[in-house]
Amino acid sequence: MTSQKNDDSPSQLLVASADLSKPIIYAQPMDVRFADLDPYGHVSTGRYLDLVIGSRFIFFYNYFKIAIDELTKKDLGFFSSHLEIDFIRPIQGTNQVLAESSIQIIEPGKQKVRFELKGMDDGRVFARGFYIEHPVKISTKKPHPLPEWAYGYFFVATPAI
C-alpha cells in the first residue's frame, strides 16, 4: 500500500506504506466525572462508549498533532453501526481510566474497533468489547472505503525499501 502526495492527502501524513497487521494502539487516560455516575456510584452504561470514542479523538490530536476537523476538511468522517461490550467490573467513583483501542479492517468500508477500559493504577480491566465503524464521505453521507492516505493514522507505518 503506497501513499503519494496528491490533492486528497493531508500534507502532514506522507508514509511509504502501512502494515495492516500492526494497528496503532490508541491509549489515552480519560477522566470519569461526577455526571458520568449512576445513583449507585458506578459509571453509567451509556458512558462507556463515550469514554472510548472521546479517547480516540484526544489521542489523535496528541499523537498526530492534528485536530480531527482536518479529516472532515478532507471529506472523511466515521459513523458507528454496532457495539458489543463485556462488563467485567464496575467503574466506581470519579477517577481516571485508561482507554485503549485499535482498528482492524474487516472489509472495505467497515472497520472493527476493539477496546478496553482499564484502571489507571492497577491495569485491571473494567470492560472490553468492540464497535463497528464505517468511514463515510461527508459530502455524500455514504460509506466509503478508508482512503489510502488515512491508513497511517491507524496502522504502523513501514519504511519504503
Describe this structure in words.
- By secondary structure, the chain is mainly beta.
- The protein is 14% helix and 41% strand.
- It has helices at residues 47-64, 69-73, and strands at 17-23, 26-31, 76-87, 96-107, 110-119, 125-137, 142-143, 155-158.
- Strands 2, 3, 4, 5, 6 and 7 form a six-stranded antiparallel beta sheet that branches. A two-stranded antiparallel ribbon has the order 1-8.
- Strand 6 (125-137) and strand 7 form a beta hairpin.
- The protein is globular.
- The model is unreliable at 1-16 (pLDDT under 50).
Short description:
By secondary structure, the protein is mainly beta. It has helices at about 45-65, 70-75; strands at about 15-25, 25-30, 75-85, 95-105, 110-120, 125-135, 140-145, 155-160. Strands 2, 3, 4, 5, 6 and 7 form a six-stranded antiparallel β-sheet that branches. It has a two-stranded antiparallel ribbon with strand order 1-8.
